[in-house]
Amino acid sequence: MSSFNAIGADRDVERDEYTPAIEPQATWCPGCGDFGVLKALKGAMAELGRDPEEILLVTGIGCSGKLSSYFESYGLHTIHGRALPIARATKLTNPGLEVVAAGGDGDGYGIGGNHFLHTARENHDMAYIVFNNEIFGLTKGQTSPTSPKGHESKIQPHGSAKSPIRPLSTAVTAGATYVARTAAVNPNQAQEILVEAIEHDGFAHIDFLTQCPTWNKDAKQYVPYIDVQQDDDYEFDTADRREAEEMMQRTERSLYEGEVLTGRFYHETDRPSYGEEKREAGEMPDEPLAEQYHDDDHEWERSYDLLDAHK
Amino acid sequence: MDEELVWRIAGGSGDGIDSTSQNFAKALMRSGLDVFTHRHYPSRIRGGHTYVEVRAAPEPVRSRGDGYNFLLALGDSFARNPQEEAYYGTEEVKPLSENLDDLREGGVIVYDEGLIDVDDVPDFEARVEANDWHVYPLDLRGMAREMGREVMRNTAGVGATGALLEYDLGHIEDLMADTMDGEVLATNREILESASERVEAMEFTHDLRMPEGSHDAEQVLLSGSNAISYGALDAGCRFIAGYPMTPWTEVFTLMTQHLPEVGGISEQVEDEIAAASLALGASHAGAKAMSGSSGGGFALMSEPLGLAEITETPVVLVEAMRAGPSTGMPTKPEQADLEHVLYTSQGDSNRVVLAPGDVEEAYEQTRTAFELAYDYQLPAILLYDQKLSGELRNVEEAFFDREPSPDLGATLDEDQLAEAAHHASGKFQRFQHDPDNDRGVSPRSIPGQAGGRFLATGNEHTPEGHISESPTNRVAQVNRRVRKLEAIREELDARETTHQTAHAPVEDAEYGIVTFGSQQGTVEEAVDRLAADGHGVKSLCVSELKPFAAAEVTRFLESVDEALVVEMNASAQFRGLIQRELGRFGDRLHSLLKYNGNPFEPAEVTEGYETIVDGAEPAPTTRFVPAAGD
Ligand SMILES: Cc1ncc(C[n+]2csc(CCOP(=O)(O)OP(=O)(O)O)c2C)c(N)n1
Ligand code: SF4
Ligand SMILES: [Mg+2]
């Protein structure tokens, strides 16, 4: 019998259940795209029927990191850039948990960039939402890894000389098996993509365009947006890495030319998740690690029985 | 005649010195002796001089001792530049020449005359005569080549050692049979025997023989790293994450070898920030978890360490010190990360730090670290060093005959959660500040449990976990976290056993020697020698560094007139800690420091003691700093 009965409860969940009964006062500015992520996540989880207590939402630091304050579930609001390594271990320890990691573009592509590469490479089974507002929101508008070249701020008074990172291409090159971009201005697509990402067995990266009207752009600047799956001009196969990569390159470039392309870019279904690979290699326990500590029948090996090599 | 053997096997790094010495030590243990090893090796894979000393006696051996009395100088197969057919400087005679003066009077030298030319060792003959050394040149390489392969010359050297010491080689042969078979075993046996026969034909001029001893109980040979790993396994640790760094890699490797077999998980990750983060994540999700590193990697763990403190996530980190700063001397021991480990990470630190003094304590205190971390929901750090990490000692097998303790500490199950206090939002009050809770510990739920959801955050937070900057809440939360550390101190003080190790061979000693961690055995040996010479001296080795063992250290220091604080660093960090924690004794604490990359030898400690007593010069390898106002 499990000691974690919220897991796999498989019941109808109202989206209200993800709203804290006493809602903490939102610290997000009016018109902030972050509200769009919160809404889409609630919708996706309700659609999937996930019990709030089988969800562990692991967030980084930034305006985006506050997501775990406004979403009712187990929450783990960590430190700047480190949501992914922490989330990875929670999933390995208790694979039944629905682990979702989230953070900003500075958090995930800058300070946590190395973890992003390796989590994608290893294909850990989780959805990772990057609130891409092309700026450091919480620290008041400095240039982020996704800010356009020439971006001006107090620290970049002459305009940034750096070209932006290519988040989608980076994810797929590193090894992510589901890569999508959506936008706060398109709530229906956002929810659909989150559902797919959460259901995906492997590392699902969602670059989520979240306008920051305070320091950067307002919602209007992400409209019109184009859904590459809906538009005939963008014929490509999301299962074909080459075609996907080409499409991503174009999408990344065009964002800075005022063309907002969104949708699913890459979806690989046959690669096992890291947990499965590790199990295959004989390095993951059959009984989830978290359950072992509550299982009265579990045999705890003693070092005393391992001493032959020392005699 | 010496009643002990200190056998040094010296040669090239990569020549199998390590495994040869390990087998030799094990054979001596099996034949009834107490053993202790000391490793010295350079920070490279191949090339460079390396040696291991095996000290063996009928009585317990606690340190490397001073110098050595038997040298087996093998050739260094990497001393020659294969392209140039030339030697690198004086490398080829190093196994014989380096620290040769530490060979005790009357000592024995066996060297590989196939590779080493004594004419290249300055004044060799004169030094041999002056020190009454007994030299047995043997063509070990030649013998090995003739019968098998060149690499087997270590076996020839061991055979020669056995014969010269009149030691029954049966123990060595048994060990060989444990680890080899077929032709390799047959050839090694042949080489062993033939080397021993060749030596037996020689005329012995030395007195040194293998000491004889016996054990009442079955013994096992373990390093500090073995002991830490076994302590962790028995504490129910089933998750480790890490990134390789000498010397911490030893614990990481050992744990990784064991964990999958016992249902656990090991992860080698991209860096140490990730390593500590994974350990935290695993613990948060309900596993007993650890990570660790050496100084540089531990520096990267600072921020996750602070996150563990504020989110009250139990975790055990081990820090294997090596000489710093920066890359420093990667394979050399030092104790200069004490302050780093005590204080790193922003904010008031809230952690346990334990420094074991020997192999048994390494096991014991690893278990204590897990126990305290999980009972009190905070990080516990085990601070040790390159010396303790690799030194082998024999321990009674029965020492390990104990029950595992997989208990998760202060957690609630779903039934208890149903009864527990919840916030009006429905969240579990995971960080309650209950004034009646005298330990300050607020039991936790684990993600996935029904009725347990809460927010854990690195921001200051309310009982249910929401971010808050309310001054009242802030003070209540800080006080509770601080209270946990006080409660640990009270719990440790109330225990019948202590982690501090006092050694007082004479009554009413006026002088004290205080140290921490791996210098324990060396200091105790020095105290024994001084006491035997009629000095009134005793020692205390401190393991509980945070919360500091204030009462015990105070009692000790009050009972002596003056004390010598022995530590392996240049800035007297441990002496500083004592003064900071106790707020006094500054005028009675002298420092003896060593930071040349080698651990203390007992004689250096006795000389440091004599510096206080009669102003004698301290050993040139050490630095003496008198007490304030002295
Ligand atoms: C180690 C560390 N460095 C710097 C900061 C300060 N800091 C907080 S959030 C942030 C950047 C926020 O940008 P982003 O990750 O894009 O999140 P956003 O606020 O835009 O959602 C910075 C630099 C920190 N908290 N920790
Ligand atoms: S600063 Fe920008 S990102 Fe942060 S809450 Fe305000 S609008 Fe949103
Ligand atoms: Mg941002």
Give the topology, please.
The complex is a heterodimer of chains A (311) and B (630).
Chain A: H1 34-48, E1 55-59, H2 67-70, E2 74-77, H3 83-93, E3 98-104, H4 105-111, H5 113-122, E4 126-132, H6 167-174, E5 178-183, H7 187-199, E6 203-209, E7 225-227, H8 241-255, E8 260-267, H9 274-280, H10 289-292
Parallel strand pairs in A: 1-2, 1-3, 3-4, 4-6, 5-6, 7-8
Antiparallel strand pairs in A: 5-8
Chain B: E1 5-12, H1 17-30, E2 34-40, E3 49-57, E4 68-73, E5 80-81, E6 86-87, H2 94-97, E7 103-112, H3 124-131, E8 134-138, H4 140-147, H5 153-164, H6 170-179, H7 182-200, E9 219-223, H8 224-234, E10 239-242, H9 249-258, E11 265-268, H10 272-284, E12 289-293, H11 295-300, H12 302-311, E13 315-321, H13 338-343, E14 352-354, H14 359-376, E15 379-385, H15 386-390, E16 392-396, H16 414-419, E17 455-457, H17 471-494, E18 501-503, E19 511-516, H18 520-532, E20 537-542, E21 544-546, H19 550-558, E22 562-567, H20 573-582, E23 589-593, H21 602-614, E24 623-625
Parallel strand pairs in B: 1-4, 4-7, 7-8, 10-11, 10-12, 12-13, 13-15, 14-15, 19-20, 19-22, 22-23
Antiparallel strand pairs in B: 1-3, 2-3, 5-6, 9-16, 14-21, 18-20, 23-24
Q: Would you mind describing this structure in some detail?
A:
The complex is a heterodimer of chains A (311) and B (630). Chain A is of the alpha/beta class. Chain A has one domain: Rossmann fold (3-Layer(aba) Sandwich). Chain A has helices at residues 34-48, 67-70, 83-93, 105-111, 113-122, 167-174, 187-199, 241-255, 274-280, 289-292, and strands at residues 55-59, 74-77, 98-104, 126-132, 178-183, 203-209, 225-227, 260-267. In chain A, strands 2-1-3-4-6-5-8-7 form an eight-stranded mixed beta sheet, with helices on both faces. The model of chain A has no long low-confidence stretch (mean pLDDT 97). Chain B is α/β, with parallel strands linked by helices and 630 residues long. Chain B folds into four domains: 5-200, Pyruvate-ferredoxin Oxidoreductase, domain 3, CATH 3.40.920; 221-400, Rossmann fold (3-Layer(aba) Sandwich); 414-494, no CATH class; 501-625, 3-Layer(aba) Sandwich (Rossmann fold). In chain B, the strands form five sheets. Chain B has a seven-stranded mixed beta sheet, sandwiched between helices. In chain B, helix 4 (140-147) crosses helix 7, helix 5 (153-164) crosses helix 7 (182-200) and helix 18 crosses helix 21 (602-614). The mean pLDDT of chain B is 94. Classes of the chains: A alpha/beta (311), B alpha/beta (630). Chains A and B meet through strand 2, helix 3, helix 5 and helix 10 of A and strand 9, helix 8, strand 11, helix 10 and helix 12 of B. Strand 2 of chain A pairs parallel with strand 17 (455-457) of chain B. Bound molecules: thiamine diphosphate, iron/sulfur cluster and magnesium ion. Magnesium ion binds at residues 62, 104-106, 133, 135-137, 144 of chain A.
